[in-house]
Design goal:
Elements lengths: L1 H64 L8 H27 L14 H8 L5 H16 L11 H11 L1 H108 L5 H31 L8 E4 H10 L2 H7 L1 E7 L6 E4 L1 H17 L4 E13 L2 E10 L33 H11 L4 E6 L3 E12 L8 H5 L5 E5 L3 H13 L3 E5 L2 H9 L6 E5 L7 H9 L9 E5 L1 H6 L1 H7 L2 E4 L4 H13 L16 H4 L4 E4 L3 H13 L5 E3 L2 H10 L4 E5 L7 H11 L7 E6 L6 H7 L4 E4 L4 H11 L8
Parallel strand pairs: 2-4, 8-9, 8-10, 10-11, 11-12, 13-14, 13-15, 15-16, 16-17
Antiparallel strand pairs: 1-3, 3-7, 4-5, 5-7, 6-7
Helix pairs in contact: 1-2, 1-4, 1-5, 1-6, 2-4, 3-6, 4-5, 4-6, 5-6, 6-7, 6-20, 7-11, 8-10, 10-11, 14-15, 21-22
Length: 760
């Protein structure tokens, strides 16, 4: 309170000082302006008086020159008379300006005739006003004399010449002299006023220094001392905070490792158990374990991501992203969950969206995955639909608008404000139906902000929600498409689309039209049959497996009964489980099948297969471990892992894929194994005794050339922000976090097993 009152007191003093100086400077300026303006008027008047004196002499001279003209030079005489008349009028106007402040000649509105000047004009001995008028009257008489009629003996001319030399000239000189004297007096007065103003200014400044600025300086000095003391304390607090932050980071890293390591055992063994022959009840129990471990892993990931964002440790990367493939790969993460809930995953990329952009694919996938996860969690039936639109574009800089639309339970308006708050949920009761800790949307919001965008939501209870977000990205050049030649084969083909889902119809039409196909879309099997029976042109029919009244199987059987349509190629849209469970019937009724969610590459491959009979050599992922992976990718694999449980999980998983692998317990054993045998891939744990994975990787990079070096894949239970960077700096080729998912391991092997030097 005392500091505040002192601050207010000094502020008032400072304001008073500024006000005094401002008023003083303003008054000084006004005074000087007035004096200078009067002095300027005096200078103008002196010029006019001098001009009047000069005109009187010129008028007299001109008048005397007119006596030399004869009758034969009257034209020049008339011209001189006109000049003389102008000079007379000019002198008259100048005279009036001096006496009446005529602004046509000078601004003398603020200058009044002094007594001395007044006496010169109107009182003896000069009576200048009378003399000037008399002089001008005689001059006007002369201007009326015709050519040749003016002689030196003319009385008006004699009076004019005499006045110009005597009384008039003396009077005009007296006026000019008096104006000069008065002007000099004014200059002297201005000098005295300037001196007084300077002295007064000096006095004001001294008083302000003593009574205003001196206390302020004292206050500032004391405040500076306090600030230095506070800065010292703040530096100490900063050091303590940084130590606490490091401790927090170390704690999170340790907890991440310690939690993920046993969790890796739970997840790994659960996945292996699901790939064995077990009873339905046992499968239900294992699914519950898997779901619980996935939920726990999500919670851990959210807490770690939130901590990294809070500490400012999130560094955005940039890499080329193909939009359609990116969405489809993200859908792969949720295909099983959507299948279990019988929910369709759909997406549509608008035509004006560039195919390739540059951005942080992992973070964008994290945002999209979080919103898709929520949409699936709160949707019991229907669909989750993703749309991508071009929001704005300036040259190669674009802003994309992503929308995640679901047909779920919706959110009340009075609960929307809780969505983007940390550890806050719409339903925070102990009996809430849905899990989670309330960090997913907070992380999404902050990641969007880091990428120059924002996120918002629209929702109606029992109708669904629309989560939208924008991201700023850069357009990049696309590599040559692998399917350009295949698209040419589809030119002009007419395709029938049979699907009761309007969005699915829209997506298929969009893809097919982009390949220059013509389409007809109907929403039921009955309408499809009616359309086909009208003998419409149709080269192939794409049929959804699940439709009301008449499903895809029934429609295919009905089409085969139409004689002229028996050879019509049919493609079925189905699910992985349905395809695996009814493989024989599907092969008998349909020429090709496409698993949902629909991928543009799958659709293109199947259409080309139908038209050419050549199927793209592409492995179709299933919901189970691929037992034939080692046949497609015969790799030599070394597992570097010190934890016995993790060894067992990785060993069993790779054996399921058909691999026989070698195991090293630490980095030293890895180096020894490489001296005895060559490997294609090393799965390298980071934390191992005697020699950890980072040191082992650096040693391998230094010792072996690129052509003979195996691909090193980091596997770690630590998920902190700098671990991936450390792995790259150590020379590792890729990075996987524990718990290891067999799907991720399979993707890694396919990615790095297809190099030129790998045996395929």
């Amino acid at each position: 309170m005392q500091n505040d009152s002192q601050h207010i007191f000094l502020t008032k003093r400072y304001a008073l000082a500024v006000a005094i100086i401002s008023i003083f400077v303003t008054l000084t300026f006004i005074s000087m302006y007035k004096f200078l303006k009067v002095q300027s008027n005096y200078a103008a008047v002196i010029n006019i008086s001098g001009k009047q004196r000069m005109l009187s002499q010129r008028i007299a001279l001109y008048a005397n020159d007119l006596t030399h003209y004869q009758a034969d030079s009257c034209q020049l005489y008339a011209k001189d008379i006109m000049t003389l008349t102008k000079m007379i009028d000019l002198m008259q106007n100048v005279h009036n300006a001096l006496l009446n402040s005529n602004k046509s000649y000078t601004d003398t509105s603020e200058l009044e005739l002094s007594k001395s000047i007044y006496d010169i004009y109107y009182h003896p001995p000069f009576r200048l006003d009378k003399q000037v008028n008399k002089f001008l009257n005689h001059a006007r008489v002369i201007t009326n004399i015709p050519c040749g009629g003016l002689f030196k003996e003319n009385s008006d001319l004699l009076v004019l010449s005499n006045m110009a030399k005597t009384k008039l000239l003396i009077g005009l000189n007296a006026v000019v002299g008096e104006y000069q004297n008065e002007s000099e007096d004014n200059v002297s007065m201005i000098v005295q006023i300037k001196t007084l103003l300077w002295l007064f200014t000096l006095l004001v400044l001294v008083l302000e220094v003593l009574f205003i600025f001196r206390p302020m300086v004292h206050y500032a000095v004391s405040k500076a001392k306090k600030l230095r003391k506070q800065n010292t304390e703040l530096k100490q607090a900063k050091i303590a905070a940084e130590q606490a932050a490091r401790a927090k980071t170390d704690f999170l890293a340790t907890m991440s490792h310690e939690i993920r390591t046993p969790l890796n055992g739970v997840v790994g063994m659960t996945n292996l158990l699901l790939n064995t022959s077990i009873t339905a009840q046992q499968r239900e129990f294992v699914d519950t374990i898997r779901l619980s471990s996935d939920t726990l892993l999500t919670v851990i990931n959210d807490i770690l991501d939130f901590s990294k964002i809070e500490l400012g440790r999130v560094v955005l990367e940039e890499e080329p992203i193909e939009i359609n493939t990116f969405i489809e790969e993200t859908f792969d993460l949720f295909t099983a969950k959507a299948l279990n809930k019988n929910i369709e995953l759909l997406y549509l990329v608008e035509e004006d969206v560039p195919s390739w952009v540059r951005g942080d694919a992992n973070r964008i996938r994290q945002i999209l995955s979080s919103l898709i996860h929520n949409a699936l969690k709160f949707t019991k039936q229907g669909e989750v639909f993703i749309s991508i639109k071009l929001h704005s574009r300036v040259e190669d800089e674009i802003e994309l608008l992503f929308s995640v639309v679901d047909t779920g339970v919706g959110i009340p308006k009075n609960k929307l404000d809780k969505l983007f708050k940390a550890f806050s949920q719409v339903d925070s009761s102990t009996t809430r139906q849905y899990g989670g800790i309330g960090l997913g949307l907070v992380i999404t919001k902050r990641l969007c902000k880091l990428m120059g965008g924002q996120v918002w939501v629209e929702s109606k209870v029992n109708e669904g929600s629309i989560f939208s977000f924008t991201l700023k990205l850069t357009v990049c050049d696309a590599p040559k498409s692998l399917f350009e030649s295949k698209v040419e084969l589809l030119q002009g083909q007419h395709i029938l689309v049979v699907d009761d889902n309007v969005n699915n119809q829209r997506i298929l039409n969009h893809l097919l039209h982009s390949w220059n196909c013509s389409t007809t879309a109907v929403g039921s099997g009955e309408k499809a049959l009616a359309w086909l029976q009208h003998n419409n042109k149709c080269n192939v029919a794409i049929i959804d497996r699940y439709m009301p009244k008449m499903d895809g199987i029934e429609l295919a059987k009905a089409i085969n009964k139409i004689p002229e349509r028996r050879e019509l190629p049919l493609i079925v849209l189905t699910t992985i489980d349905e395809l695996e469970n009814n493989l024989e019937e599907t092969k008998r009724l349909f020429q090709a099948s496409i698993c949902k969610p629909i991928k543009q590459t799958h659709l293109l491959n199947m259409l080309n297969y139908v038209f050419t009979g050549e199927k793209n050599k592409r492995h179709v992922k299933t919901t189970k471990i691929d037992n034939s992976l080692s046949k497609r990718l015969p790799l030599r694999i070394l597992l570097a892992e010190d934890d016995v449980i993790n060894q067992k999980i990785s060993l069993l998983t790779l054996e399921k894929m058909g691999y026989n692998i070698d195991i090293a317990n630490n980095g030293l054993e890895v180096l020894s194994a490489l001296e005895e045998k060559s490997y294609d891939i090393i799965l390298m744990d980071l934390h191992m005794p005697r020699m950890d994975g980072l040191v082992a990787s650096k040693t391998i990079v230094e010792k072996y050339p690129v052509s003979k070096r195996p691909k090193i894949i980091a596997t770690t239970a630590s998920a902190m922000y700098n671990v991936k960077k450390q792995c790259i700096e150590a020379g590792m080729d890729d990075y996987m976090t524990k718990p290891l998912q067999w799907r991720n391991l399979e993707n890694i092997l396919e990615k790095w097993g297809k190099t030129d030097d790998a045996p395929i």
